[in-house]
């Protein structure tokens, strides 16, 4: 029993109903995995934003402390007195006021700060040091402590009045090994810009621990605060040097000693510090493992069904249509001798048989129409060529009448001889000519027009000698040159120049092939193309050029008062003799 195409499609439909279901089940694990990844990342990013805001609050508070001296005039006067080196020379009353400002007024200002700020230290330009601990009471600093050699001191000086964020360091200038992070600033005289000293405010690293401790994640997670050099200020779990190096490289997955971690990193904009969350990839994958197992099971079944469907589809439908496409492509390129091998008697076979009949009839039709179209095209070609002859003769004879009336008989004789040669050329029965003969014809025509216009017409005619035998429609250029003379040069009350050039050009990228470019350019009256249009002569030339070669182009540009340029481009490799 031979099945029809409809019956085959019914069977095919029954087999393919299950495939979308299998595919859907196969991709669900991946879909939910990506969804889980996105939601987890969004959750972590939201948590990081909250952590970042909390860290910025403390940094803002520390930064506020470093500008406290600017808010007290007494403190600023005392700092200037110390920085000038005139403290010992000042009166006892002035020294008393200065010490009072630095030891009591400034600590009173700092007393309004949070309790978890450990203390501040002010190192003045003359080497004197004033510090306040977390009890907001003055503390005697170590007189031999090398402040100026400390990294935080140099960093504050380098920032030149801008806030400097200091990574984790020991508070050894207070005689303690407690780790703190700080904000430092170089204090400067607002009037002269002269450095007065360095002010630094400290916060205990325990603040970072308290901020991070309150955050809960659904898998084992490492949360770390890193400075701008990717050094850890705090981490709730140890980070190896290799893990820190991978974080510095911006990797999304970091390898640890016994696990790999996915990372989400957010930068604290004020300080350039980073808060990084590393969540265990192993635990994360274990939560998704059941999705992978179910997906793999259903995907295997889907692949098997798809393979069986592919074999059936290729045997029943795809192969005949592939053969048809192959044959039609060859027919498209002109090979009309192709036929499709017919198998069976179903609808596809009937379609192939109809296609074979169509190809045979198409071949017969093309043979008939080609001969008819060729005769019609040649007739149109000669008709368009003949349209320019009366217009050209009329303008030329008017010029000869003018020479006769002015008594210029020698010039008249020369003009008549030139006209005789031109007429012989125009009366030749060939549809095409060579570029060399066309240029000779234009030279004779311009000599004839120059006898009429005298010094008012100057012309320059040149072409590449290699193009002398280049074929193009006969009398294609004459109407364009005549337009340039009559409409461009004749209206002028000065000398006009006409330039005719023919050369071979190639597109810069080489993709456009080689062209013969013919340019006719005058500096005459010009006209507005938008309002005046191209005219009958240019339209005829454009149509003849299109009949001669479909890829040929004619471009016209004109500016009133400046002249007109007409450019023709004909593919150099496509022109054949007429």
Quick summary:
By secondary structure, this protein is an alpha+beta fold.
Description of the molecule:
Among the domains are: 67-208, PAS domain (Beta-Lactamase), CATH 3.30.450.20; 336-381; 387-571, Histidine kinase-like ATPase, C-terminal domain (Heat Shock Protein 90, 2-Layer Sandwich), CATH 3.30.565.10. It is flat, with a radius of gyration of 47 Å. The chain starts with a helix and ends in a 7-residue tail after the last strand. It has 15 helices and 18 strands. By secondary structure, it is α+β, with helices and mostly antiparallel strands. Mean pLDDT is 80; it is low at 574-578.
Number of helical stretches of at least 4 residues: 15
Note the quaternary state here: single chain
How does the major sheet shape up? 6 strands, antiparallel
The CATH fourth-level homologous superfamily of the domain at 387-571: Histidine kinase-like ATPase, C-terminal domain
User: In CATH's first tier, which class of the domain at 387-571 applies?
Assistant: Alpha Beta
Can you tell me the CATH topology of the domain at 387-571? Heat Shock Protein 90
The portion of residues assigned to helices is 40-55%
Instruction: Tell me the number of strands.
Output: 18
Q: Compute the gyration radius: what is it?
A: 47 Å
Low-pLDDT stretches are: 574-578
């Amino acid at each position: 029993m031979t099945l029809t195409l409809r019956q085959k499609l019914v069977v095919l439909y029954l087999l393919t109903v299950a495939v979308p279901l299998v595919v859907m089940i196969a991709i669900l694990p991946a879909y939910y995995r990506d969804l889980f990844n996105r939601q987890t990342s969004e959750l972590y990013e939201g948590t990081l934003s909250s952590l970042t805001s909390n860290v910025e609050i403390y940094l803002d508070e520390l930064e506020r402390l470093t500008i406290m001296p600017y808010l007290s005039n007494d403190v600023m006067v005392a700092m200037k007195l110390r920085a000038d080196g005139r403290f010992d020379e000042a009166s006892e009353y002035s020294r008393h006021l200065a010490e009072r400002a630095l030891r009591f007024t400034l600590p009173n200002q700092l007393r309004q700060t949070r309790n978890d700020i450990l203390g501040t230290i002010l190192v003045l330009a003359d080497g004197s040091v004033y510090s306040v601990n977390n009890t907001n009471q003055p503390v005697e600093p170590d007189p031999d402590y090398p402040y100026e050699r400390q990294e935080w001191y140099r960093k504050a000086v380098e920032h030149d009045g801008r806030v400097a964020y200091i990574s984790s360091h020991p508070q050894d200038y207070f005689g303690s090994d407690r780790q703190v992070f700080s904000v430092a600033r170089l204090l400067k005289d607002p009037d002269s810009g002269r450095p007065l000293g360095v002010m630094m405010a400290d916060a205990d690293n325990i603040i970072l621990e308290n901020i991070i401790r309150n955050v809960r994640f659904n898998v084992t997670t490492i949360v770390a605060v890193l400075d701008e050099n990717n050094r850890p200020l705090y981490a709730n779990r140890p980070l190896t040097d290799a893990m820190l190096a991978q974080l510095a490289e911006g990797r999304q997955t970091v390898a640890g000693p016994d696990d790999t971690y996915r990372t989400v990193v957010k930068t604290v904009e004020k300080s350039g510090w980073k808060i990084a969350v590393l969540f265990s990839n192993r635990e994360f994958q274990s939560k998704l493992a059941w999705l992978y197992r179910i997906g793999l099971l259903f995907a295997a079944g889907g692949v098997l069904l798809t393979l069986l469907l592919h074999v059936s589809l290729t045997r029943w439908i795809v192969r005949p249509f592939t053969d048809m496409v192959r044959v039609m492509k060859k027919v498209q390129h002109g090979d009309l001798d192709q036929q499709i091998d017919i198998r069976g008697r179903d609808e596809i076979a009937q379609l192939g048989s109809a296609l074979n009949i169509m190809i045979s009839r198409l071949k017969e039709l093309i043979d008939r129409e080609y001969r008819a179209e060729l005769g019609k095209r040649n007739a149109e070609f000669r008709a368009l060529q003949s349209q320019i002859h009366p217009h050209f003769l009329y303008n030329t004879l008017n010029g000869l009448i003018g020479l006769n009336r002015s008594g210029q008989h020698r010039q008249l004789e020369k003009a008549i001889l030139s006209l005789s040669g031109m007429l012989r050329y125009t009366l030749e029965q060939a549809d095409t000519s060579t570029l060399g003969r066309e240029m000779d014809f234009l030279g004779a025509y311009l000599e004839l027009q120059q006898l009429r216009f005298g010094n008012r017409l100057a012309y320059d005619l040149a072409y590449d000698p290699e193009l002398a035998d280049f074929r193009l429609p006969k009398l294609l250029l004459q109407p364009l040159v005549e337009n340039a003379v009559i409409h461009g040069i004749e209206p002028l009350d000065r000398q006009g120049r006409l330039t005719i050039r023919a050369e071979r050009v190639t597109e810069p990228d080489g993709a456009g092939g080689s062209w013969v470019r013919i340019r006719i350019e005058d500096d005459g009256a010009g006209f507005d193309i938008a309002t005046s249009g191209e005219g009958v002569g240019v339209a005829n030339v454009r149509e003849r050029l299109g009949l001669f070669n479909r890829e040929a182009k004619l471009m016209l540009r004109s500016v009133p008062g400046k002249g007109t340029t007409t450019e023709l481009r004909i593919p150099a490799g496509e022109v054949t003799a007429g």
